[in-house]
Amino acid sequence: MKKRLLVLGLMLVFLCAACAPGAGKDGPAEGEAEVWFLAQKNGDTGSALAQEYRSLPEEDRIEALLILLFAGPEDPELTSPFPQGTLLKSWRLEGETAMVDLSEAYGGLSGADLTLADGCIVLTLCQLPEVKRVYLTVEGRPRPFRDQLLSAADFLLKNGEEQGEEESGHT
Q1: Which residues neighbour 129 within 8 Å (Cβ) at sequence distance 6 or greater?
Q2: Which residue of 107, 117, 159, 171 shows the fewest CB atoms closer than 10 Å?
Q3: Predicted local distance difference test score (pLDDT) of residue 26
Q4: 46 to 30, 50, 56, 145: CA distances (angstroms)
């Protein structure tokens, strides 16, 4: 029952997330990728999340995206969902799953703040063809009471449509 409520909560939080800065652009240019952050409350869009487009190197793309995420947005209309002191401890790719371990600061997030931060990480990484799912841990430990394996399809972005509907992180 708690898991269903969490999924319903995730769906509601991300319902309006795509109408924000960067969303009007047709998509990333060659060599760019979407990096997802919190949209500041400006009344016009009602969005929870928005992406900005950033240059991405050809090599070590997963690590580069994570570094860009934790560095924060360039767009002044966006803000980072990550608490101060959140660091990438390690990452690895197992099959199509990005295994991401974060510092203890991330473990201090809860509720909607944690859901939004998870969404920024998952939506940013799952745009890469080699990443279909993300497994998040804190200091090497699974997070209690949270789905550990997430995919872009776990998040609704606009008009009730799921991001990457054909992909599902549920196993």
Answers
A1: none
A2: 171
A3: 63
A4: 29, 11, 29, 28
